[in-house]
Recover the amino acids of this structure.
């Protein structure tokens, strides 16, 4: 949505705010020969000039006797008094203002916006300008508390203290700075009650978190106020839905964007019948949108995005016939869109992404012929894109990604000649991509990723796309890029995303013509060729992200590169059949944050020069043949959150320097030849660790109780080592295994797209990528652990897999094991457990694998509920004292056929059922056979076909027998 008020709102607000201002211009001698600014006012301005650092000579005109002719100065045409001081956009610097400004006693207009008054506070003496009607101190970098003395400006109509943050660019770009710390603070807003004539108030980015009276003070503003902007003010108090009295009834613009307001839709807003601009985005508003919103018929812009509204959009929305922009994105709205929206013909922006809307794309969309931006992405829409979409000839942005759309991409899209963005990625669309897309000469971004496209993408698809800089194509079906070997595209791409699209086997030479690449992702594109060394080196020197995984790339281009300029952020070359030693030139790209070389054939040691990559957040060399010791230099990479050394040939110990990796979340050194005591230091030094994998090594010793101080651990795999001792009772303290924190900040970080582990919590090696945050398991199998299974483990309700097989555990299986309600895999086999199997196991509905074999368990095997689906004798094999189904051995007191009821009544009922069953099936077979014979007798065509089929089958049998006999005799 547009982040500025519409032209209508601006005109309305400014006319109302400035209508009573009496600004003059410097009068000419001819008009008023006896008027000029007074000496005291001129000296006051010169003192001001002395306090300012003017790097760009903005004040170069401040010379001569008549200050009314100076830049930014306005005087009353009759009296000559200075009434206007306008130094906006002067790029002036200062750390204080002289009180001599008070000599400008007739000042009505003061604008110091868009300057750099770093560390300067708002002077209290500004409250002494009794005639001031306009005060603008926005984008000045002034700081401290706003003085209450401003409440003395009783004639003030316009007050703007907005966007004083640690950094700002152009004034119009304020929406980029939501996260910047505020420099200005207000501790109480009661002084606002003195501004009895105020029409425009903008406190955006002023920190109001210390004001408990902010809303009551706002409500005490004069009912003539027109514009109220409180964007990003750190407001967290709930807004009352109903108020005993409402002063705010004349607003035409209300902006409460980017706060933490938590309440239903504020009904007091509906009292402002002239409201034209309403922005409540990025708060915590919830509940439904009231039908009465339709009474605000003057609304031109509505932005309610990124809140928690739910339910359906009210039909009354169709009454807002002046609406030009509607943003309802990122909520929990559901159901179908109301037909009344088809009446909103002035709409230019309709943004509905990130909800749960269902049904077809509504045909009434075709009535909104003024639309320039249509976003319906990230919903549950199905069906196809309607042909009527071609009526929206003003459309520049069409985003329909992340839905369940099917069918072909309609060629009517090609009628949208002004289209700049076309995004239909991540749907279920099929068929061929229409060639006419190549005629959309204004297209800049084209996203056709993750559908089921078929056929070919040719040069005709791009023939007139001279402005294209973003291209994303991938297919779940059979799609190939078919262009000439000498093709030169008409565009220069910055972002190239091609996945599961057949581009190879030869290197696509058209890539050599693209000299502005920032990101290139080409995954599984069937390239099996030597990439030109000069192109690859050039790519590494200009791109931020290079991801060429799952291709067959020749190794020569890596070994011949000596140096690459800094700047690259991410490099992923996994599963590309690369071999040889670690490419040393990578150590010089000190800007790297992600390096993925997994699933290749690299050998030798990891070089110590990796310590140069101090910005590195993720390092993945999994499944190679790296050997030697793990260098302690890796411990200097203090920004690492993801380190995967899995399945190599590393030996020696885990470096003590890893204690320095305090941001580490994933550490996987499984399937190596490491030999070391279990490192207890991981607990204190790695507080963020969530995934810790040491399996298939030679770690030894006891599991320290210090591990229990890792409440965030959600995957712990120490399987196939030489660990002894007991399982610590305090393992029940793993709070991440009690309730998985799915909103953890780590999973929103840059490295999340590259995280992958291969592990076997369920007995099979599985690959985890985007679903890592949902995994919770403990695997201590095949060690030398003794003692009992702690009952405290049964508190881990989010645990999905528990593997304790192949140890020396004794005692009973805890009766409360049924509390592990999320458990999918349980393996306690090959231990020394005894006693009965707890009946509570039947309460675990998610259990799909169970192995209790080769213990000393006894008693009846529990049945019922979900256990009925796990009838596999191997589950309980090797427990000779177990009885009952599915084991053939009956329990004491059971009959030889435990599945047959013991009582005579049950047997008689069963016999009676058998009698009736056979009594019914016999006549049925007889009638069917007689009917078949009758058909053969009376229907000639059936009879011929039947006996012809019999003859053919008989002939084939005879021939086959003859061939077999001859072969046997030979």
């Amino acid at each position: 949505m547009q982040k500025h008020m519409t032209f209508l709102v601006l005109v309305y607000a400014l006319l109302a705010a400035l209508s009573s201002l009496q600004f003059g211009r410097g009068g000419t001698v001819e008009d008023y020969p006896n008027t000029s600014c007074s000496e005291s006012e001129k000296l006051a301005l010169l003192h001001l000039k002395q306090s300012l650092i003017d790097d760009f000579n903005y004040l170069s005109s401040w010379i001569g006797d008549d200050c009314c002719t100076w830049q930014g100065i306005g005087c009353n045409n009759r009296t000559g008094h200075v009434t206007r001081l306008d130094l906006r956009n002067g790029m002036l610097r200062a750390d204080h203002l002289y009180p001599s400004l008070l000599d400008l006693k007739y000042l009505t207009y003061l604008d110091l916006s868009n300057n750099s008054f770093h560390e300067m506070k708002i002077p209290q003496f500004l409250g002494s300008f009794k005639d001031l009607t306009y005060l603008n101190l926005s984008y000045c970098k002034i700081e401290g508390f706003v003085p209450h003395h401003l409440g003395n400006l009783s004639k003030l109509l316009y007050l703007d203290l907005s966007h004083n943050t640690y950094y700002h660019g152009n004034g119009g770009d304020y929406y980029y700075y939501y996260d910047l710390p505020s420099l200005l603070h207000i501790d109480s807003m009661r002084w606002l009650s003195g501004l009895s004539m105020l029409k425009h108030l903008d406190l955006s980015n002023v920190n109001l978190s210390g004001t408990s009276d902010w809303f009551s003070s706002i409500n005490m503003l004069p009912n003539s106020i027109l514009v109220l902007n409180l964007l990003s003010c750190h407001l967290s108090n709930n807004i009352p839905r109903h108020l005993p009295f409402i002063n705010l009834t004349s607003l035409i613009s209300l902006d409460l964007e980017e706060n933490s307001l938590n309440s239903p839709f504020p009904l007091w807003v509906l009292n402002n019948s002239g409201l034209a601009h309403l922005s409540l985005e990025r708060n915590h508003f919830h509940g439904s949108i009231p039908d009465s919103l339709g009474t605000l018929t003057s609304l031109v812009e509505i932005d309610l995005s990124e809140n928690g509204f739910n339910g359906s959009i009210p039909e009354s929305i169709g009454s807002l016939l002046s609406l030009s922009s509607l943003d309802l994105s990122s909520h929990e709205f559901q159901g179908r869109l109301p037909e009344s929206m088809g009446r909103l013909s002035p709409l230019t922006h309709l943004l509905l992404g990130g909800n749960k809307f269902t049904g077809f794309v509504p045909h009434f969309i075709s009535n909104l012929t003024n639309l320039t931006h249509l976003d319906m992405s990230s919903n549950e829409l199905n069906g196809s894109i309607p042909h009527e979409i071609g009526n929206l000839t003003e459309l520049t942005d069409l985003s329909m990604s992340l839905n369940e759309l099917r069918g072909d991409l309609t060629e009517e899209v090609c009628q949208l000649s002004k289209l700049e963005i076309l995004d239909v990625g991540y749907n279920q669309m099929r068929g061929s991509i229409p060639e006419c897309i190549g005629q959309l000469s204004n297209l800049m971004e084209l996203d056709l990723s993750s559908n089921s496209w078929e056929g070919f993408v040719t040069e005709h698809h791009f023939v007139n796309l001279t402005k294209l800089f973003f291209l994303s194509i991938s297919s779940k079906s059979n799609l190939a890029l078919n262009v000439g070997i000498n093709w030169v595209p008409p565009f220069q791409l910055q972002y190239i995303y091609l996945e599961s699209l057949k581009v190879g086997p030869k290197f696509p030479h058209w890539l050599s013509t693209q000299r502005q690449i920032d990101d290139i992702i080409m995954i599984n594109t069937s390239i099996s060729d030597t990439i030109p060394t000069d192109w690859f080196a050039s790519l590494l020197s200009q791109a931020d992200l290079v991801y060429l995984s799952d291709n067959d790339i020749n190794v020569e281009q890596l070994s011949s590169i000596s140096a690459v300029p800094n700047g690259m952020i991410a490099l992923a070359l996994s599963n590309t059949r690369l071999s040889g030693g670690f490419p040393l030139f990578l150590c010089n790209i000190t800007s790297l944050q992600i390096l993925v070389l997994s699933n290749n054939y690299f050998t030798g040691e990891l070089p110590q020069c990796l310590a140069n990559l101090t910005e590195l957040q993720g390092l993945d060399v999994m499944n190679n043949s790296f050997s030697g010791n793990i260098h302690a230099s890796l411990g200097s990479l203090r920004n690492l959150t993801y380190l995967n050394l899995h399945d190599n040939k590393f030996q020696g110990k885990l470096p003590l320097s890893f204690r320095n990796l305090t941001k580490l979340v994933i550490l996987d050194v499984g399937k190596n030849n490491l030999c070391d005591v279990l490192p207890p230091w991981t607990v204190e030094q790695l507080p963020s660790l969530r995934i810790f994998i040491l399996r298939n090594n030679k770690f030894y010793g006891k599991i320290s109780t210090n591990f229990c101080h890792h409440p965030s651990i959600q995957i712990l795999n120490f399987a196939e080592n030489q660990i002894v001792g007991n399982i610590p009772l305090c393992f029940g303290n793993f709070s991440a295994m009690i309730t998985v924190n799915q909103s953890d900040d780590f999973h929103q970080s840059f490295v999340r797209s590259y995280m992958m582990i291969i592990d076997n919590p369920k007995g099979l090696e599985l690959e985890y990528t985007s679903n890592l945050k949902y995994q919770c398991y403990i695997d201590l199998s095949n060690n030398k652990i003794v003692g009992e299974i702690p009952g405290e483990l049964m508190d881990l309700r989010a645990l999905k897999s528990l593997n304790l097989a192949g140890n020396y555990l004794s005692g009973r299986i805890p009766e409360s094991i049924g509390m592990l309600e999320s458990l999918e895999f349980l393996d306690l086999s090959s231990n020394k457990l005894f006693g009965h199997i707890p009946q509570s196991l039947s309460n675990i509905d998610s259990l799909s694998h169970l192995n209790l074999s080769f213990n000393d368990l006894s008693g009846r095997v529990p049945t019922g509920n979900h256990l009925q689906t796990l009838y596999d004798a191997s589950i309980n094999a090797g427990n000779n004292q177990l009885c009952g189904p599915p084991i053939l051995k009956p329990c004491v007191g059971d009959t030889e056929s435990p599945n047959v009821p013991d009582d005579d009544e049950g047997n008689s009922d069963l016999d009676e059922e058998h009698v009736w069953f056979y009594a019914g099936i016999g006549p049925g077979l007889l009638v069917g056979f007689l009917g078949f014979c009758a058909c053969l007798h009376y229907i000639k065509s059936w009879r011929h076909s039947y006996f012809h089929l019999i003859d053919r089958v008989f002939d084939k049998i005879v021939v086959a027998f003859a061939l077999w006999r001859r072969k046997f005799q030979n």
